[in-house]
Design brief:
By secondary structure, the protein is mostly beta strands. Helix content is 3%, strand content 44%. The chain is built from one helix and 33 strands.
Length: 406
Amino acid sequence: MSPLIKCIFASWHRRVTLSWQVTLLWLMASPLLAQITNQVPNPELRGNQGVVASDMASSVTGSVPSGWRGFAVNGADIVLSSIELPAGTLFAGSPAVTAVRLETIDFGPGGSDSGLDHTSSEFSLFADRSYSGAVYLRSANADNSAQQLSVSMPIFDQDGDFTGLQPGSFNANVGSNWTRFSGPAFTGIDDFSSLIAFRLSNDGGDNAVLITLPEVAGPVLANRLPNPDLAGTDGFVQGNVSGDVPDDWRAFAIDGASLDINAVPLAASAVFPGSPASNAVDVSVVTGAGFTGFDHEPTQVALTPTGYLFRPRLYMRSSNNNGSAQTVVVNTPVFDSNGFTGRTPGIFSANVDNQWRLYVGPTFSELAGTTLNMAIAVVEDGGEDSVQIAFPTLLGVDVILADGFE
């Protein structure tokens, strides 16, 4: 964690934490997110905030979808690019999504490795659940020739170490039409985790493929955050804050700082193709020098079941009038019966431009009896220091755990 982030959040929680009663408003999930069963982060492959992993002998060029990783080691080289697919492209009634074009330029010598995965956003496994992977694929070779690739699903233990098990993995021989490929089902292991990864096979030609809508069926997921549509004006205010704060959320500005909060109505498809009509919140630092933020600390959410991997995500765009980028820190402070624990496991920072983009934080698990508060801080980096936020999400297992999770 950078000294800047440590300074912002250590001081913030010492000074600003309130002793509000914790409530379970995570039952009020947005209809958009309330019945998700796909365990894969960002299966629509939106955004460009993913990470790159390579060494001095290798390269990964292009952009990586948010929550994903492009990797190449030991002499391998790959190129990644995004292609927007209109509704109906994959099958009748399919949504508008993004496809990733993965091309391996150089497979490298023996021991090399390259591909696309989401290693920083693994998903939890449960012993009484079955899991299976699927994905839509199409050859991206210039001559439309078939392309072979492997789809792997490695399993990791409680420490994040690879167990050597990959029971859901499969191979695909991809043709020139969009086709859904799926792998074998396997039973989960409590407190273990998995991911889905794509690697091309060196079968000649361009060695390129298009990938979209990867899916791993699993337990029903829900958005744990209160009022994710950011509706209403009955939120909490602390300090010098002007404007209306959404229900169940809080805005604060103390120690000489001031903050301006404004609701921004969103039309359907305003944030991404097919996005529902909703609301965004515009957060603007008017006067700095103190401490400011936007969170839901008065309505924290319970981190159950213990050991489950939670995943923070939200859409953001800079609202600086000159179109300049804005530095933002998204924090996930954890609390227990004694207050702030000092742990911020899902924290990440972002340089947000003036286009709506998806931002996905790292997955994390927590201890029994802990609660969480997603918090957004606009960092003073010069200029206007303004950002808009929409569809904040903390994905977790559906809170109606009638089948043995609790």
